[in-house]
Amino acid sequence: MLRHFDSLDFPRPTRDALALRFGQVSTLLDQGAVADAAHLFDTIRRDYESWSALVDLRFAQDTTSPTAKAERDHADALTPYVTAHEVALKRRLLEYPDPVAVAQEITPHTLELWRTDITTFDPRITGALEEEARLSGTYTALLAGAKLEIGGEQVNLSGLAPYAESTDRAVRRKAEQVRWTFFERNAPQLDDLFDQMVRLRHGMAETLGYDSYIPLAYRRMRRVDYGPADVARFRNDVLTHVVPLVHDILRRRCETMGWEVLYSWDEPLIDPHGNPRPAGGHDLLLNRAQTLFECMDGDLGPFFRQMREGGYLDLVNRPGKAGGGFCTSFPTVGMPFIFANFNGTQHDINVFTHEMGHAYQNWKSRSLPAVDLLWPTMDAAEINSMALEFLTWPHIDLMVEPGQGERYRQMHLISSLSFLPYGVCVDHFQHEVYARPTMTPVERHEVWRTLERRYLPWRNYGGLPHPTAGGRWQAQGHIYRSPFYYIDYALALCCAMQFWIRSRTDPQGAMAAYVDLCAQGGAQPFTRLVRSAGLQSPFQPGTLADVVRTARGILNT
């Protein structure tokens, strides 16, 4: 029977208790009981990940709670200690004298992941990992604590979205001004936080024998089948094929709106009639979503009902809540959790369907035999989320105001294409930063300005000082908290749009391939999962060009 979320309460681990449990795994290996050792090792990791996920979630739900922060600090201090035990046991299993016995219990791909994992840790970097987690929490709390005044009310950063998409140009400009005033006021702290993070990460890389943090970051992301050179070629494909298309779209929007100049505060208004809005508030949207998922093939409908009835959703924006959206899970429960911040704009639908894709994948793969397989690496995981955004298109009219379904689909396609140049800009920025870790904050801002001119040549901040000076990147939390993650969205979008193209002529086949991909979880690395779903790798020449050609034809641009 499904446990209600409110009843979840996992035992709080301690160093001594964990040492005892991990020691039991070693004892079993000493005795030659490989099957029992592998099973216990997996159980310990599931228990710890369930507790850790709940701690992180509760902190995100209320960053002002002293209790949640204290528990988060305990987890930050404990996690490197757990990693040390895990790496030691992974190494021992990889080097076990009877590899046949190990292979009978652990999949080849899991072993491949472990070979990567053991190169990312050494006890000497334990303190640095704990400090990295602390700095990440400081960044999250700083942004979550924003109190912004606009339109006679006080909002947080997520609450600015309705103003940023207003049909009133002056209101949009005001929202942009309020946003960047906050970042300008906090720029010294944000620069200092990031400077500490870069030096810390570079130091960890040097300790582990790498020339820079870049190869370590790729290994921490468990990328076993491609490297920086492949990503660089993909960035160039975006520059060649997508940037001109987005530029054409924005020129046409200027002509339609009668603007002589496109400013940064104009870009969020994608639809000249005003961006389509959700059909209603939180409760209505959940009821409509239930109908939407029941209209789709497979078991999406029953799964979503379980999430609702079990309390595995937190979608309402409120003071002190961390921004953004994510999906987490509790391996011992077999149920994912969706976190988001509804704000009354089209982003509510985008984020919700996106995170629902993550949740569905995790639920479909919940019975796979090892904790390493429950999630794919994040590049593949983002295919599951982004593809569902597109596969819900035939029923998306349920989620928007009457008569706005087609406008929503057009807006979603344009915003997806427009994301790609920004996504690769973020990635390129990180490669530059970690290749030259001694850069000053001023130099980093200049690097961002240079790359922004390359990938987003239309971007005009209208003289707003902080973003004009190259500070836009400070609002992108992934740069601080999850380095080198962001390219995963761009790679996955190239694959998700292939699902969309297939669904236009073969909706049942596209959905069946999607369900099968979700059920595989992390059983294979990124490129093999892509191939198994009948998709072309983003790294294959011509793949992105073909996707863009189809999109351009539909948009008649």
UniProtKB/TrEMBL annotation:
<dbReference type="Pfam" id="PF01432">
    <property type="entry name" value="Peptidase_M3"/>
</dbReference>
<dbReference type="InterPro" id="IPR045090">
    <property type="entry name" value="Pept_M3A_M3B"/>
</dbReference>
<feature type="domain" description="Peptidase M3A/M3B catalytic">
    <location>
        <begin position="306"/>
        <end position="541"/>
    </location>
</feature>
<dbReference type="GO" id="GO:0046872">
    <property type="term" value="F:metal ion binding"/>
</dbReference>
<keyword id="KW-0482">Metalloprotease</keyword>
<keyword id="KW-0862">Zinc</keyword>
<feature type="domain" description="Peptidase M3A/M3B catalytic">
    <location>
        <begin position="163"/>
        <end position="266"/>
    </location>
</feature>
<dbReference type="GO" id="GO:0006518">
    <property type="term" value="P:peptide metabolic process"/>
</dbReference>
<protein>
    <submittedName>
        <fullName>Peptidase family M3</fullName>
    </submittedName>
</protein>
<keyword id="KW-0479">Metal-binding</keyword>
<comment type="similarity">
    <text>Belongs to the peptidase M3 family.</text>
</comment>
<dbReference type="InterPro" id="IPR011976">
    <property type="entry name" value="Pept_M3B_oligopep-rel"/>
</dbReference>
<keyword id="KW-0645">Protease</keyword>
<dbReference type="GO" id="GO:0006508">
    <property type="term" value="P:proteolysis"/>
</dbReference>
<dbReference type="GO" id="GO:0004222">
    <property type="term" value="F:metalloendopeptidase activity"/>
</dbReference>
<dbReference type="InterPro" id="IPR001567">
    <property type="entry name" value="Pept_M3A_M3B_dom"/>
</dbReference>
<keyword id="KW-0378">Hydrolase</keyword>
